[in-house]
């Protein structure tokens, strides 16, 4: 059985994690083997890098260091977890992948996109998601949703930073319509879930009925 690689992207507060968990529950109900994971993170080495990247205390981190750490985490994650799971025929659901680096470290941090493309091919072993759900949300609403929690290092960036992230995501989706599915993240969670599960089941050929 062929595996399927599904990623979730969006600005802070867009509901990626919630929708990914809802999708996982439905797919488990249908008996599909899954890997549920996130970036940065996944295997222990990548989770250790995540702690460095998101620690609000690491304010002195250079943008170059940040980019390389994300790529290092992704290489470990892809090689140790994602590719083996896909070879085993699993559906891999990942909260963020390399599109986040293009949006955050590329557009928002103003780093060279051609260089990021080279790093991406290297750190992903040329792996491209089958479907990328972009949960699009106005920046102000995203911040309103996360205002109650302790913010990590990237979440603490200003509104203009996150606006650049959002616009880069929309540009990526426009450039790659065959992979991206853009969803209005202001819709009720259950309505979004129905749209997402329908897209995934179309790719897998699995009925929504057990």
Question: How is this fold's topology laid out?
Answer:
Blueprint: E1 4-9, H1 16-29, E2 34-38, H2 44-54, H3 63-87, E3 91-95, H4 98-108, H5 113-123, E4 131-136, H6 139-146, H7 159-175, E5 180-184, H8 189-204
Parallel strand pairs: 1-3, 1-4, 2-3, 4-5
Helix pairs in contact: 1-8, 2-3, 3-5, 4-5, 4-7
Notable characteristics:
210 residues, 13% strand, single chain
Structure description:
By secondary structure, the chain is α/β, with parallel strands linked by helices. It has a single domain, classed as Rossmann fold (3-Layer(aba) Sandwich). The protein has helices at residues 16-29, 44-54, 63-87, 98-108, 113-123, 139-146, 159-175, 189-204, and strands at residues 4-9, 34-38, 91-95, 131-136, 180-184. A 5-stranded parallel β-sheet has the order 2-3-1-4-5, sandwiched between helices. Helix 2 (44-54) packs antiparallel against helix 3 (63-87), helix 3 packs parallel to helix 5 (113-123) and helix 4 packs antiparallel against helix 5 (113-123). The chain is globular.
Largest sheet: 5 strands, parallel
**Strand elements, count:** 5
Which of globular, elongated, flat, extended, rod-shaped describes the shape? globular
The portion of residues assigned to helices is 40-55%
Question: Strand fraction band?
Answer: 5-15%
Number of domains: 1
Strand order within the widest sheet?
Answer: 2-3-1-4-5
CATH topology: Rossmann fold
Radius of gyration: 16 Å
CATH architecture assignment: 3-Layer(aba) Sandwich
CATH domain class name: Alpha Beta
